[in-house]
Design goal:
The complex is a heterodimer of chains A (383) and B (257). Chain A has 383 residues and is of the alpha+beta class. Chain A is 51% helix and 15% strand. In chain A, the strands form 3 sheets. A 4-stranded mixed sheet of chain A has the order 1-4-5-8. Chain B contains 6 helices and 11 strands. With 257 residues, chain B is an alpha/beta fold. Chain B is globular. The chains are: A alpha+beta (383), B alpha/beta (257).
Chain lengths: 383, 257
């Protein structure tokens, strides 16, 4: 298996890097105001990033998961808040519709994820069901030829920008041996009566990325809203998260890379005790370690991506990449911040933002503990 | 409507310039190359017309080594329709480059030939006007905008404090200046499409061009001398006292007063 990206994959990533380098002051403004400017999302649509993972027959570019991981790395290196929105939109949401959508659903909803008018959202988590997604409480009842949805969803990325949500709700209660029986995925347009978006959460980092709850109060959707089979939503959610974890690994790598690049650039210009701080061995050891860990994380992410592209199982490898990359980015952003000394703690330098943004990565799309559970389960049950 | 945009591939503006071993040229080993910035504006100007009228065809051409294909691919990825590489030595004199470009223009018969007003490497600004001369077409310099107006074109050129608008009937040559409309980024679909396009090659002989123009020889090239570091003085006191000390230093230290 070839882990190195192809020339084309690199070229696509470099094109996105060139675009992202032009974001300039929009990043600081977006973080300060807590919003992703919609013109930035529109530009991503024009650039073709949002549709890059969608097959050509569905109007996308049909590019590889490796290319997508590289592009997410570039977006995260510039603006982690933007990268997570794109990862959810083009990774999990688009991926779920491509995999499980009918022809009509693909034709209707995929263009909405591609045109840059918003970013799709994946509504799985509930106030009392985070990692334990099988215990979710939202309910879908038959009503006429459609369904009536009730429940609350929490921590939904891009809720405020979403043209539609993939909402997970139960059509029947859990069964003792099958706790996720009855879980079904629904495509719920944002303008559905009975769907309201709660207040935006105030977060430690990723402040420009919207994270909000949604309330479903007798929200009615038609018969065409069921994504995949009735009662098979849990498997659909897990499949979506597998791809999403590669996205978060890529985001973690981009954050770490940007932090290290900034630290080295700062070190070049900073002298103490009469010499450049980059001449001190303690600093050199830290940047060498950081670079080795970034590359290791990238190779893990690309292995999971290639397996996915080859149609091979990749659940464990995606979890390994996500686990390692998200924990790596904690270490790297903190040691990069340390290199800045007191300046690292000041908002004037981007480094504190990267360190705050990095902290989300071992939490969302499955905590590190969940990733270890997934990896261990695959090892124990394989025997 | 057909545009022909002439490009040059140059060392990227982020390259830290070093003098090569012979002391006569910039060292080019391992550097990044890109399309000359004014040429990018020329491509953008043509593509804007294509946005407004999709029947517009935008062709690009470069004269030089095979490396120039990258600049052509970039133009295709931005949305240009076709690209031509004229194989020629890197040190082909500017007038011969212009002859080759004029010969391509004669074959393609575009309505408008656009060039960046100058290339960012040698900054001679010679090729564009020479192409117009060899073609016998009028040329308008410092273009920032082109608007179709009946059977003619309104060509906006930047002048001190404003714009002049000229009218020209095609065919015409325009030399493009930097404008407010930043060149677009190549899109991912654009890059994928560009990869599938053939870039035909021509050579000087097939265009009927013989390299015969006078050649400029660079005698020597060196980096400007390093500037001495500044001095920082810590001055105390109120504004008047500080001003007095500054005036004193301008007299005794920098000797400008």
């Amino acid at each position: 298996m070839r882990l190195e990206p192809s020339e084309t994959e690199r070229e696509l990533a470099l094109a996105v890097r060139a675009w992202a380098e032009g974001l300039g002051g929009r990043i600081a403004r977006g973080e300060r105001e807590g919003t992703l400017p919609l013109d930035v999302v529109r530009e991503l649509g024009t650039l073709g990033v949002l549709g890059m993972t969608i097959p050509e027959r569905d109007g996308g570019l049909g590019l590889s998961t490796v290319a997508f991981a590289l592009v997410l790395e570039e977006l995260a290196a510039a603006w982690p808040s933007l990268a997570v929105g794109v990862s959810v939109n083009s990774g999990i949401v688009a991926g779920s519709i491509v995999r499980d959508g009918t022809d009509q659903q693909r034709a209707k909803w995929l263009p909405r994820l591609v045109d840059g008018s918003g970013l799709g959202a994946f509504a799985l988590t509930e106030p009392s069901a985070g990692s334990d997604a099988a215990s979710l409480k939202a309910i879908a009842m038959r009503d006429g030829d459609g369904w009536r949805l009730n429940g609350r969803k929490q921590f939904i990325t891009s809720a405020r920008y979403a043209p539609f949500f993939i909402v997970f709700a139960r059509v029947s209660p859990p069964e003792p041996a099958r706790p996720h029986a009855g879980v079904t995925a629904f495509i719920v347009p944002a303008e559905t009566m009975g769907l309201t978006i709660g207040e935006t959460e105030s977060k430690m980092g990723l402040r420009a990325s919207d994270t909000s709850g949604i309330m479903l109060e007798d929200a009615w959707v038609g018969p065409g809203a069921v994504l995949g089979d009735v009662g098979k939503g849990f498997a659909l959610a897990l499949a979506g998260l597998d791809g999403g974890r590669i996205g978060i690994a890529a985001q973690s790598i981009g954050i770490a890379r940007a932090a290290l690049e900034r630290a080295i650039a700062y070190g070049r210009a900073r002298s103490q005790f009469g010499r450049s701080i980059l001449e001190f061995e303690g600093i050199r050891l830290a940047i060498a370690q950081a670079r080795a860990e970034i590359d290791a994380a990238r190779l893990l992410a690309h292995r999971a991506s290639r397996l996915r592209d080859l149609g091979e199982p990749f659940t464990r490898e995606a979890s390994m990449a996500k686990l390692y990359a998200s924990e790596m980015t904690q270490r790297v952003t903190y040691s990069a911040l340390q290199l800045f000394g007191g300046y690292g703690y000041m908002s004037e330098y981007d480094i504190e933002r990267y360190a705050r943004d990095a902290r989300a990565t071992p939490l969302y799309e499955g905590t590190s503990e969940i990733q270890r559970m997934v990896i261990a389960r695959s090892l124990v049950t394989a025997a | 409507m057909r545009f022909l945009v002439c490009l040059k591939q140059v060392p990227d503006s982020t390259v830290k310039v070093k003098v090569g071993a012979g002391g006569k040229a910039v060292a080019t080993e391992g550097i990044t190359w890109s399309m000359s910035p004014y040429d990018e504006y020329a491509v953008e100007l043509a593509l804007e017309r294509k946005d407004a009228d999709p029947t517009t065809v935008v062709s690009v051409v470069t004269v030089g080594s095979a490396r120039g294909r990258d600049a052509l691919r970039q133009a295709l990825a931005m949305g240009c329709d076709d690209a031509t590489l004229v194989n020629a030595p890197e040190d082909l004199p500017a007038l011969d480059v212009a002859k080759a470009l004029a010969a391509v223009a004669k074959e393609m018969k575009p309505d408008i030939v656009l060039c960046g007003k100058q290339a960012s490497d040698d900054d001679q600004g010679l090729v564009g006007p020479a192409v117009a001369e060899f073609l016998g077409w009028p040329h308008v310099g410092m273009l920032t905008k082109a608007v179709s107006s009946g059977d003619a074109w309104e060509l906006w050129r930047e002048v001190e404090g404003g714009h002049e608008v000229w009218k020209a009937k095609p065919p015409v040559v325009g030399l493009v200046h930097k404008s407010d409309k930043e060149p677009r980024y190549p899109s991912l679909p654009g890059i994928m499409k560009a990869k599938k396009k053939e870039i035909p090659e021509k050579d000087l002989a097939s265009l009927g061009v013989t390299a015969s123009s006078p050649k400029i020889e660079v005698v020597a090239m060196e980096l400007p001398p390093q500037r001495g570091g500044g001095k920082i003085f810590k001055l105390d006191g109120d504004a008047k006292a500080v001003a007095e000390q500054v005036a004193n230093l301008l007299h005794t230290e920098s000797k400008v007063l």
